[in-house]
Amino acid sequence: MADELHDAILRFRASNTNRFVFVHMGDLCCSGGYYAAAPANRIMARPTTLTGSIGVIMSTINIAELAGKIGLSDVTIASGGNKDLLNPLRPVDTNHVAILRRPVQQLYDRFVGIVAKGRNLPVETVRALADGRVFSAADALTNKLVDCIGHEADAMKELRKLADGDVRIYGYSDKNDIRSFLESALIFESADGIIGKLKAALAEESTPRAEYRAR
Amino acid sequence: MADELHDAILRFRASNTNRFVFVHMGDLCCSGGYYAAAPANRIMARPTTLTGSIGVIMSTINIAELAGKIGLSDVTIASGGNKDLLNPLRPVDTNHVAILRRPVQQLYDRFVGIVAKGRNLPVETVRALADGRVFSAADALTNKLVDCIGHEADAMKELRKLADGDVRIYGYSDKNDIRSFLESALIFESADGIIGKLKAALAEESTPRAEYRAR
Amino acid sequence: MADELHDAILRFRASNTNRFVFVHMGDLCCSGGYYAAAPANRIMARPTTLTGSIGVIMSTINIAELAGKIGLSDVTIASGGNKDLLNPLRPVDTNHVAILRRPVQQLYDRFVGIVAKGRNLPVETVRALADGRVFSAADALTNKLVDCIGHEADAMKELRKLADGDVRIYGYSDKNDIRSFLESALIFESADGIIGKLKAALAEESTPRAEYRAR
Amino acid sequence: MADELHDAILRFRASNTNRFVFVHMGDLCCSGGYYAAAPANRIMARPTTLTGSIGVIMSTINIAELAGKIGLSDVTIASGGNKDLLNPLRPVDTNHVAILRRPVQQLYDRFVGIVAKGRNLPVETVRALADGRVFSAADALTNKLVDCIGHEADAMKELRKLADGDVRIYGYSDKNDIRSFLESALIFESADGIIGKLKAALAEESTPRAEYRAR
Amino acid sequence: MADELHDAILRFRASNTNRFVFVHMGDLCCSGGYYAAAPANRIMARPTTLTGSIGVIMSTINIAELAGKIGLSDVTIASGGNKDLLNPLRPVDTNHVAILRRPVQQLYDRFVGIVAKGRNLPVETVRALADGRVFSAADALTNKLVDCIGHEADAMKELRKLADGDVRIYGYSDKNDIRSFLESALIFESADGIIGKLKAALAEESTPRAEYRAR
Amino acid sequence: MADELHDAILRFRASNTNRFVFVHMGDLCCSGGYYAAAPANRIMARPTTLTGSIGVIMSTINIAELAGKIGLSDVTIASGGNKDLLNPLRPVDTNHVAILRRPVQQLYDRFVGIVAKGRNLPVETVRALADGRVFSAADALTNKLVDCIGHEADAMKELRKLADGDVRIYGYSDKNDIRSFLESALIFESADGIIGKLKAALAEESTPRAEYRAR
Amino acid sequence: MADELHDAILRFRASNTNRFVFVHMGDLCCSGGYYAAAPANRIMARPTTLTGSIGVIMSTINIAELAGKIGLSDVTIASGGNKDLLNPLRPVDTNHVAILRRPVQQLYDRFVGIVAKGRNLPVETVRALADGRVFSAADALTNKLVDCIGHEADAMKELRKLADGDVRIYGYSDKNDIRSFLESALIFESADGIIGKLKAALAEESTPRAEYRAR
Amino acid sequence: MADELHDAILRFRASNTNRFVFVHMGDLCCSGGYYAAAPANRIMARPTTLTGSIGVIMSTINIAELAGKIGLSDVTIASGGNKDLLNPLRPVDTNHVAILRRPVQQLYDRFVGIVAKGRNLPVETVRALADGRVFSAADALTNKLVDCIGHEADAMKELRKLADGDVRIYGYSDKNDIRSFLESALIFESADGIIGKLKAALAEESTPRAEYRAR
């Protein structure tokens, strides 16, 4: 989801040079939220925003020890040693961990690259910030992860100045709304400025997959 | 939420010099409730009000020991040492605590500053009161956290005198109501006096974040 | 709530000298119920009424020992030593108890004063009765906490005699009803006698706060 | 409730000398049921009725020992030693028991007096019967707690003879019905004979209070 | 209930000498079912009927030992030693058992008398059968507890012969139906023969009371 | 239920000599199902039918030991030693077992007699088969418990030949349907052949009673 | 159910020589599913079908040891040693197992015979395959349990060729549908080719009975 | 399901040479999802796609040890040693595992062949990749499991170029929709290009069967 939003924002900007994206962060704009926000022209945090948590994580629960205690055992017949990936009823297989660590690392590198390009920072600078930690608004500003700090009214004022004309406000309630808004924008080419309140409402799935997640 | 209300009240006052905000506290006006009330022109507590609890808190439950007892274990593959922030299934990592203590301290300093400015008190005076303790109405008055003590009828009488004319009473039932009321006030510039029954109905979220919370 | 009712009754009496308030107690009129009833002109108990329980109480459950047994632990990052007031997962902090004992004592003194004034008794007499104990109707009469004992029909008869004319009976079903009734009475100035069946329906809240409570 | 019914029946009889109340007991007419029945002109038990259980009881569960075992503890800040009356999480306080024993004893004496007057028996005779025991119909008759034994048809026949005319039968389904029936009877003065199937449907409340209860 | 049905059947028979009651038992016609059937003119069992269980029983569960184990204790303040009858949280009091044994014995004697009279047997004969045991149809016939054995069609044929005319069949589905049927019969005096399929659907109540119960 | 069906089938056959009953068994036609089928003119099993289980059984669960472990005890006040028949909270009383074994044996003898007469076999032959065992279709045929084996279409063909004319098929869905069908047949005398798919849908009751039950 | 379907298919084929049955298996066509499919003219498996599991099984859970541990005991009064067949509360009786093993073996022999006849294989060949194992489509083809392998479109093409004309497709959703379809086919004699997607939706019953079941 | 989709896609391509199938993968397109996608003309992964997990798996839980601990035992009467396949209440039988390993291996070989043919890769190359591991988009591209990487807008652009005309977009929400879409396509022959968002929504069944599953 975060990657799709990110791509939609990039295309929105690319479709017309006098369009731009202005992000005003909520109290929590971490991980996938920051991923989607990174390509904006300008990012304003609230004074109370927590942001950062740049990184990728996969996690699951292993119950092999519990199963042993209560007398459950797994009967698995599989065609290959890794088909049974992270079977929760068996002790953790280090090969399985290595197989999953690889896409985690690749997605992490992509995330770092996106932030570096979006924020116009050296990759090594981003990598040093991207150990998963969270930042207050003040520390995010110091580290150039955001451009300024302010309330919604400040964001509106700055947007009017930048858009140099009449700003239309769209109401949208969830991740699907913002996406269809951005997609319709791609087609009708009518809005000259938007405020994206990006909410990292990442879908929950039972299979382990890479997430840009704030614990 | 508290910070947004606080900002809206500040802008309301700033928009017209003969407007002011009069806060009449309920039985419990602590932490975020006091945060929002601080910029009011005048604060009246009830005789039975508890207020204070000035400070910031984050908390979560760690179940690493329980998981060990019953035989659950966490399998996490993360791109950085802090991505897995305060993972409840692992022993508490002191780096994680340090990362979160920083924004807690910054938000605390902001809270103290807001109270000092709103109540026109020296920062050091506020800091001495702001260790999280609660105050009775009488002690809050002694410490200048409120201006006076009275019932709703007293508040109404004093408001009529101050507003020097007809006071309009608006009914609003929750935090969203008061916010839209204040925002509409910014636009229509018609009300000359309001009573804010601020209720610190802070949104509950599962991720640890800074709160101005009365336990 | 009890303090608001108490204040409304005081204002009702003050608004017109030939108005008065007659309280007929139910089977249980303790603590906050008695608090609200105290300023009435006359109080009649039923022969089977339990009243009293004059005092203030705050209570919560501490589960630190339980948490230790099952392997849960609290992770709290707070800006001050008292922000984490009576955290149920940590051993009880004696400073926290002292902070809360202070408003309990102040509210208790207010309660004693209200009873002394309402019942026209010396403060020391009230203080001796106000250790939280409950009284039967007979003992309450002996101690002057009520004026007389009787059934609803007796109350009606006595009220007719005092009001010296036509008594209007209002039906009201809960604490909000009686309050709006008393408030409307303040405005329309039409009722000459009321029977208040005060029910101490105190709102339940999860935060510890002072209550006038019969266990 | 039992005391209110008792009072309503007394007033019904007092309102007109050629009215009377005839009670026909069900299979169980104990405690509060007998309390309300006592002032009737005549009481008929069924051959299978259990009656008696004259007395007053309060009871609650103390869980102090259980709480200690599982690691819960009570944190109570109260203004007086008896405000925390019979706190279930603390060992039973003998002062608390003494405070409650007093109204139990007073209500018991009132109950004994009501039976003595209603049944025209010496107080000492009633006191000897009123240790809480239950009586069969036969033993209740021997002890003059009832006047006769019979089925509903016998009750109807005897009532017709006493009322000396047309008996109207009212259907009512619960305690509220019988009460409103008796109250309307007080006002319209039209019924000359009633059969009260008194059901001791005592309201359940969580606070300990005196009850006339058959276990 | 059983005693009421029994009385209604007696009155039905007494109201007109050429009326009689014919009972056709179901698969289980024990205890209260037999109590109600006893006054019939004629009783036919099915070949597969179980009957008997003549006697009276009261029972409850005592949890004093369980409460001790888990740390619950009872706090009871009662006006007399027997008010707290068979308190399940306290060890069984032998006085309480003696108090209840008395009505059990009296109701038992009444039951035995009803069977002796209804079946025209010596009281001592009935007493020997009435130790609570159940009887097959054959043994019930041998012991004269029933008059004959047959199926419903046999019952119908015998009834036609006895009623000497047209038999009306009434459908009724539960204990209330049969009772109102018998009561209407008392008033309208129109039915000349009935088949009572008596079902001992005794009401379940939480208070211990005497029952004519087949376990 | 089984005995009633059995009786209805007997009467159906007796009502007209050119009527007969043809039973086509389902996959399970045991115990009470066989009891009802026994008087048929002809019984056809399916190739996959299980039948037999001829006998009578009563069973209940005794929890005396469990009650002792957890600290529950029974308080029973009964008028005779057998009123408390097979009380699950007390150790099994051998007298109680003997009382119940008697009707079990009598019902068993009746069952054996019904099979012997219905299938025209010596009683001793039936008794040897009637130890409760189940039989496959083939073994049931060998032992003359059924007359032939076939599918529903075979049954229909054979019935047409026997009934020598037009066979009316009635749809019926449960035990009540078949019973009312047979009863109406008794009255209207119109059907010349029926197929009874007897389902031993025996009513479940909590009191121990004799059953013809396949475990 | 499986045996009924099997019989209906046999009769369908027998009713008209230019009719035939073409089975196209789903992903799982085992045990009872194969039983019903065996008499088809032609059987096509999918490439991913599992089939086989030829055999008969009865199973239940015995809880005698559990009952002993928690203190439950069975009280059974039965007329014969085998009436209490496989009582789950008592240790397994080897006679009971022997009684049930006999019909299991007989039904197994019938199953083997049906497959041998339907697939035109020697009985001994079938018996060797019929130890309950499952087969992939390929192994089933090698062992002649199916005739060919293909997808639904292949089945349709082959059917059109065989039926030599217009094939009508009937939609049916469960076991009852297919049965009524086959039965109506017997009567109206109109369909010349059908595809049977046999689903072994065997009814679940609590009594142990022979099943053709894939675990 | 996956095999059916795979077959439908093959037939769709075969039905008209200027038709082709373009797959755009979602975040997770593993196992059965990849199986169905393999025959497409062209496969585009998202930058964040996880794919692979090529292989077959069957699994169930064995509770023999748990059953032994709590005192449950299995009573199974079966016609052959393998009828009771992987009975969860008995220790795992190695013959049973061998029986199931065979179709797992055969289905695996089929899966490998499908991938080799669909992607035009040597079988041995596929076999080396098909040990069940997952691949990131980048690694899948390196290993030729996909043809390119891009977002939905890229897929649309490429499709327009390939289809050389107007592309109709169909909305479909689940596996049934896509199947009926493909089937209707087979019949009406009107669409020239489709995008298949294949979701491996494999049906959950309680019987062990081969699955192409990503854990």
Question: What this model shows, in words?
Answer:
The structure is a homooctamer of 215-residue chains. With 215 residues, the first copy, chain A, is of the alpha/beta class. Helices cover 43% and strands 17% of the residues of chain A. Chain A is built from eight helices and nine strands. Chain A has a four-stranded parallel β-sheet, sandwiched between helices. Chain A has a three-stranded mixed β-sheet with strand order 2-4-7. Chain A is elongated, with a radius of gyration of 21 Å. Chains in contact: A-B, A-H, B-C, C-D, D-E, E-F, F-G, G-H. β5 of chain G pairs antiparallel with β6 (73-78) of chain H.
**Rg over CA atoms of chain A:** 21 Å
The spatial strand order of the largest sheet of chain A comes to: 8-3-1-9
Task: Give the overall shape of chain A, derived from the CA principal axes.
Answer: elongated
Number of helices of chain A: 8
Helix content bin of chain A = 40-55%
The poorly predicted ranges of chain A are 169-210
What percent strand of chain A?
15-25%
What's the quaternary structure here?
homooctamer
**Overall average residue pLDDT of chain A:** 77
For the largest interface in this structure, which chains are involved and how many residues does each contribute?
A: A-B, 48 and 35 residues
Give the SSE string of chain A.
Answer: HEEHEEEHEHHEHEHHE
Structural class, from helix and strand content of chain A? alpha/beta
Write down how many β-strands of chain A occur, each being a DSSP E stretch of 2 or more residues. 9
Instruction: State the distance separating the first and last CA atoms of chain A.
Output: 17 Å
Largest sheet of chain A: 4 strands, parallel
